[in-house]
Amino acid sequence: MPLSLNGLVTLPWWGYVLVTLGLTHITIASVTIYLHRSQAHRALDLHPAAAHFFRFWLWFTTATITKAWVAIHRKHHAKCETQEDPHSPQIVGIRKVLWQGAELYRAEAIVIETLDRYGRGTPDDWLERRIYTPHTYTGIFILLALQLVLFGPIGLTIWAVQMIWIPFFAAGVINGIGHFWGYRNFACPDASTNIVPWGILIGGEELHNNHHAYGSSAKLSNRWYEFDIGWLYIRILETLGLASVKKVAPKIRWGEIKHFCDVELLHAVITHRYDVTTRYAKAIHTTARQEFERLNLALPDLKQVGHWLNLDSAELKGDERDRLDVVLSKSAQLTKLYQMRQELAALWSRSTASSEQLVSQLQDWCRKAENSGIEALSQFSLQLRRYA
Prior knowledge:
Layout (H helix, E strand, L loop, with lengths): L12 H28 L3 E3 L1 H15 L3 H13 L10 H4 L1 H16 L2 H7 L7 H7 L5 H14 L2 H23 L21 E2 L8 H6 L13 E2 H11 L3 E3 L17 H9 L1 H22 L4 H10 L9 H11 L3 H15 L8 H16 L4 H10 L4
Parallel strand pairs: 2-3
Antiparallel strand pairs: 1-4
């Protein structure tokens, strides 16, 4: 039976629930498509009409200013998991980011240096200068008044849910849990995770590790079992002529084993470097575990050393480096596995080396792996030679 709440629109209780979910979902779609993928990472271009709808909707429903959001997000990528990261749970703690993520956002949004350095290329037209930026909160109060007129007192509840939705799910869940708990497809040099493989509730942003691996990709799903509803919306917009995708994550292709490395193989390895390091960690897992058991490592140490073994040396803190060295000094095999991991990562970190030099280094790496006497290394090298 419909509820009578003195508004212009009377709905059954589930009707108000659907209206609330629908409005918040439009907001989520606006954040992921417009702010995140289009503005922050330039993964797609939007038709001016679509871009302005999203910009207006975000001002109207969340008081979000494009330049501030984009600048903070770009800084997060540039300074990820460091003291300069605006919202890393690895630095300030998961509780802080999950429950006070919006406060961290507001604190960074007033840093002029952040806005000037990372907010370039965002809208700076008459509407932005005269309406959206100087009257940040006007939109959400107009929204409140409109919903009270339409739905009566329950409009206040609908409005309150909208005010909480983005601060909690975007600023809290994605920035917090998305760097703390979940599964990883790619061994990025940060703590990003995929929260679940079905990106629906938060528009696809649940696939956060995939995003950090390929930041400029308009599509966040990567494995066959992953679903990114934001990508579905982008494809619909593209069909309607309202969006143009510029870049998506490259697909891994496999070819025949190349016994002699070449530039094409080098480029494939560098392009898929996060996939390479992830597969390397899986390839050496059994060998490393056997060595851990031989050394009788305690369970906490086993987990920590196993994690450190698959990090770049620059990512290790001083005490972690010292503790890892102690373990490595007791095992020639673990030392070899760690050294080969560092040499592999050096292939895409040596910006001054020529392509010919890097091809030679890749060939040397494969030769050393296949002659190492460690079956896991030898088999991984053969797989590496198949990237295309």
